[in-house]
From TrEMBL:
Domain of life: Bacteria
One Pfam entry name: Usp
PANTHER family xrefs: STRESS RESPONSE PROTEIN NHAX (PTHR46268), UNIVERSAL STRESS PROTEIN UP12 (PTHR46268:SF6)
Signal peptide region: none
Stored InterPro entries: Rossmann-like_a/b/a_fold, Universal_stress_UspA, UspA
Residues annotated as domain UspA: 8-144, 153-290
Listed name of the protein: Universal stress protein UspA and related nucleotide-binding protein-like protein
Family of this protein: Belongs to the universal stress protein A family.
Gene3D superfamilies per record: HUPs
Length: 292
């Protein structure tokens, strides 16, 4: 570490697939906006070189050479699309989970694609990806949605209560950086709170007002107005499940932001159900912000 401290960086995992190329482009754009360097990481998953006579290691060495070529291609591709951006690469022969989590320590952002091949083939939808999302210490962005789409100029933040202040602030700062608006979306299910019998209208109205207050308190806790002055903020309370409401809103957003809400289980941390659902079904990139 030098006198100025470690360099700020955005980390992206790549494997040569089209989805990882999209993730690298997204990460490069965000690194430039943030004034960070970009670290491009590839994991072969082959483990250390086996202690065998040289002729029997040809397959292993071919894999490593191909991995280096993949990283070089990724670096050149990103540099061509983002002139002046500082790009560094990391090659590891370990499985992806550990290196990604290690690289994310101290990073501003970890970025992944939705599907891949090789060491990253099950990164999102399989157990490796869920473990990364469950344990990463910085915000994780999974680049979902169509490859080409018109910008919506909107960031959507899912808000449950004041515990989401960190995610709301991340969404607000991102929206300001992108010169976009922020939609703070809160969903509630009347049936789950008042039962299946037909409730009094006054009861439903009072409960809805409570949820509106919860949304406003969350924005206050995030200090959005003070820390991101001039940001255009919309507030919306919708009836229904949070995951479904957020997936629907993602069709009209450039980024969907949710808190990780990681409950501790006997086997360790796991991802909260809303974050899990939107990672699999959202129609735009998703940011999962860890709990503090």
């Amino acid at each position: 570490m030098d006198a100025t401290g470690p360099a700020r960086e955005v980390v992206v995992g790549v494997d040569g697939s089209a989805d990882s190329e999209r993730a690298a482009d997204w990460a490069a754009s965000e690194a430039r906006r943030r004034g960070c360097r970009l670290r491009v990481l590839h994991a072969t998953g082959t483990g250390p070189e086996p202690p065998r006579p040289a002729p029997r290691n040809n397959g292993y060495r071919h894999t490593v050479r191909a991995a280096r070529a993949l990283l070089d291609d990724a670096r050149h591709r990103v540099a061509a699309g983002h002139p002046g951006l500082c790009v560094e690469t990391t090659l590891t022969t370990d499985d992806p989970e550990g290196p990604l989590l290690a690289a994310a320590e101290g990073a501003e952002l970890l970025v992944l694609g939705t599907r891949g091949r090789g060491g990253f083939s099950t990164l999102l939808l399989g157990s490796v990806g869920l473990r990364v999302a469950s344990h990463v210490t910085c915000p994780l962005v999974v680049v979902r949605g169509r490859a080409v789409r018109e910008p919506a100029r909107r960031v959507v933040a899912g808000v449950q209560d004041v515990r989401d202040a960190e995610a709301v602030l991340f969404a607000a700062e991102t929206a300001a950086r992108w010169r976009a608006g922020l939609l703070a979306l809160h969903a509630w299910e009347p049936v789950s709170e008042v039962g299946h019998l037909v409730p009094r209208v006054d009861t439903v109205r009072e409960l809805r007002h409570e949820h509106v207050r919860s949304l406003l308190q969350s924005l206050t806790a995030a200090e959005v107005t003070a820390r991101v002055p001039g940001l255009r903020v919309e507030r919306e309370v919708v009836d229904g499940g949070a995951a479904a409401a957020l997936v629907d809103a993602s069709a009209r957003a450039d980024l969907l932001v949710v808190a990780a809400h990681r409950p501790r289980t006997p086997t360790g941390l796991r991802l909260g159900p809303v974050a899990h659902a939107v990672l699999h079904h959202a129609r735009c990139p998703v940011a999962v912000v860890p709990d503090r």
